[in-house]
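User: Quick sanity check before I run a bigger batch. Here is a single chain. Can you write out its predicted 3D structure?
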Amino acid sequence: MKVPLNWLREYCSPDLDTAQIEERLTMTGTKVETILHHGVPSIEGFVVGKVLAVSAHPDADRLRVCEVDIGEDEPAGIVCGAPNVEAGQTVAVALPGARMPDGTMIKAAKLRGVPSAGMILAADELQIDSDHSGIMVLNKILPEVQLAAGTPLEDVLAISTDVIELEITPNRPDCLGVYGVARELHAATGAPLAIEPWADEPSIGEQGGMPHAGGMVGGEGVGISIEGDSRADLTVSPARARESPQNEQPQPPPVTVKVECPDLCKRFTARVFEDLTIAPSPPWLKSRLSAAGQRPINNVVDITNYAMLLTGQPLHAFDLDRVAGQTLTVRRAREGEQVNTLDGQTRTLDSEMVVIEDADGPTSIAGIMGGERSEVQGDTKRVLMEVANWNGPNIHRTSWALGLRSEASGRFEKGLAPEQCMHAQAVATQLMVELCGATVLPETIDLAWEPQPAQTIRLREQRVEAILGMPVPHARQAEILRALDFDVAELAEPALDVTVPAVRREDVTREADLIEEVARIHGLEALPTTLPARRGAYGRLSESQHLRRRAVDTLVGRGLHEVVGWTFTPPTLYDRLRLPEGDKRRRAPVLENPLSEDQSRLRTTLLGSLLDVAAHNSARGMADVGIFEVGRCFVLDGESGVTEHRSLAVLMSGRVAPATWGAPDPSTADVFAVKAMLEALGSALRVEIECRVGEQPFLHPGRAAAIFCEGEEIGWLGELHPLVARGWGIEAAAAMEFSLDRLVSHATGQILYRDVVSYPGLSQDLAVVLPADVPAARAMELVRAAGGDLLDGVEVFDVYTGTQVGEGKRSLALSLSFRAPDRTLTDADVVPLRERIVQALEELGGELRA
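Assistant: Done. Predicted structure follows.
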């Protein structure tokens, strides 16, 4: 929500600049998202001018040369292209040196050869509204103000203000109005708070008067037609609206209203305004609406928006002469019913939605948007001002189902208090009289209104200290709560009886909520760092937590960056990963109420979120990516519903190390790069991990493997299939993913030591030609078994394929290390072991290379 600071300061104006106000509001829980500026950057150079003479431009048909009195000794010559400029007008002028809202600086210049020392301004050039049809004529739009030439324009119009954009949490609908934010600022800073703008409402019935805020039906002289025994169906006759001459019949009721669904409409109020004039709003109203992000339209519509922004309660104005049958009924919509809304769209409704209808059918979608048939137009003379309270969850559902969000729906869905209806009615009534010249009929329609008793909660000083870990003086607690509009009664014991205001009824329901109010205003930053009371309990990481953290530390130590992706994923992910029908990773749980279609499934793999991060970086020129994620995955299980497990996934693309002068072309990520990460994890967790031949639809054929731990398959690794990588805009990448829970269950994390052998070892190299389809891991497994206890280690240090070894074969060069703990080995000790190793390799179809 955007709050113009000059409007906010009308109700609470602490001696703080904009940045300090932002800091106090944010620190007390009313988060300021950003600070904007509306209007001109600086007010210097903007003055009131009087047009003394206007003559044709000698070299341009559409330009006029104006002599303008700007309060100096000599009038300024200004060339103006507006069609409505005339002598005798009072206008807004930007002098040379003034800076416009878009940053442009006004300079003295020549236009078609004629000097021009400034600019006569239109409304849109000051961001007051979007009108650029002509210049602003101040003596026309402000006839009651005496304007002297040279007067600073800021003294006449609000041409510059900071705007704070707030993030209002769903539990604080009371802050969806300017006055509610002013109340928060008052509590946070101690600056005085102006009286509520709806507090003083005199009686109505005469033009220029205002209604009583608590105006109810059923007063003296009021005719009430009740069908049934419920206040949900009333007709109000404004018997006191006009005195009828003797021998004349009283005026008939102007409108009949029925509420057929009081469970979805908790209160419906309405007032009738007659003899009004539709016209543009005054500049002060336009500038406030524009700064708050609203587009000025006409005085009646602008009044509804202004009252909503001030009080937080939406309103809707009906052209009463366009309400068919002069009746309105609030009811549930019928299945398939349609409404033409103000945005020119036809909306199809269902039976869970609420409409307001007249005798010809639905005329608006309750709480969201009005209809075209009864909208206020240029010839409107009578207005029915509706201010109602709607069921928040129902409004949220309707808005989501129709894909239609409005300022009204955004407020109603958070749960407004029914009492706020009359706040908005009072503000709107005053403005309708002042700005539209309207006559207010004396009675207020007020239906389906069941006042709720105020809730009183006891706040104990001892409990405040126990929860916050520090004492807050009794008087300070009362001061804070009164500043927030709570009624406070002090008790003899160190406690307060606190009555919750209506606008906080849904948010503050227990003692802990009051303590939160005290804490955030007193200053959360002042709370000491303490531990909660614990009765002999102590906390420590479990063994599995230790191992998971060790795994994360290992990958970070290898240069990877941890990311946190969305748990939600789009249904299209599985097609992008080329997963076939029947693959269990397609059995993703579907959310009943997703935020969007792209977040409608729970993820079954971490690969999608890692690819999204890699694509995001690649699109911004960061092709070298090494990332990993630890998170939960979910799979539908026919027996137990949804099963979940914790997975770890790694993705590497681009170069595995930065280029240097010594290595200008480092190697790029491939299957061996991610296999190295897997082996590092196995070493850190002290668990045996094995890679075997395996395939995945999203991996490159022949460059993929299955991950096994203690004979159990726990995941996969390999290079991404080129089509998959290209689908995310990545040239090439390698990845792996496995169940971290299952890996940790096999790990011990214990470091085992053995004595250092002081006797020297003996090394020999062996080159063996094997069929190309025999994995190197299988060959090394046989070598270790044949070498026995004296074989200290075996490594592959070279692989060769080519004509010298024949088609379908490859040569592995093995480095064998032999060592004995009690003697120095000789060649005679190693010869029989070498022969056994060669025989074992021959069983795989191998032969020694010459």
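The first strand starts at residue 2 and ends at 4.

User: Great, the batch can go ahead then.
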